[in-house]
Amino acid sequence: MVERLAGWTLIDNEFIDQVAHLAGLSTDEVARREERAPGLLERLARTLAAASPEMSVTTGGSPPSVETEEETIVQMTERVIAQVAAEGRAVLVGRGAQAVLATRANALHVYVIAPKPFRRKIAIERLGIAPANVDKVMQETDEHRDQYIKTHYGRDRRDLTQYDLVLNAERLGFEGAAEVIVGEVKRRRWV
What we know:
Shape: globular
Helix content: 55-70%
Distance between the termini: 15 Å
Number of domains: 1
Radius of gyration: 19 Å
CATH class: Alpha Beta
CATH superfamily: P-loop containing nucleotide triphosphate hydrolases
CATH architecture: 3-Layer(aba) Sandwich
Order of helices and strands: HEHHHHHEHEHHEH
CATH topology: Rossmann fold
């Protein structure tokens, strides 16, 4: 809605396509891994593999690369965020954009919140998540996003001091929240 009201470009799911292209991976692989930090066992296995060159001798390959597919995806995501931000007049949704662009004076950081019952309703109606699974999916999604930001940027995604605006979607509605954001963009004379 913000992009429509401001006449800007929305970059949401397009991240996946651009990152996949840059990383040389399939969009399915990027989608599966995006905004998900590796778990403890995955990190431990990678560390042990990197620390054990003899493992590569048995396979006939070279020592495992320290740079993993996960790190490549994060780096390519940061690159896409930086490119889009440099072009200007874009709405970036998620993927750590608030952390990547934290020091930019020409970035407006917005955190949209809502009570759990409202989020549950939206997840069922708009995203088609089965009512029996919605709480689990919401919790896992929140945990993955929290861990992604913590792991890759050392930040707490829910620390409201890193945002310029915090808007309650239930109270304002999506259209109302979009109008507040566009109002701030206009106040800053960015349109």
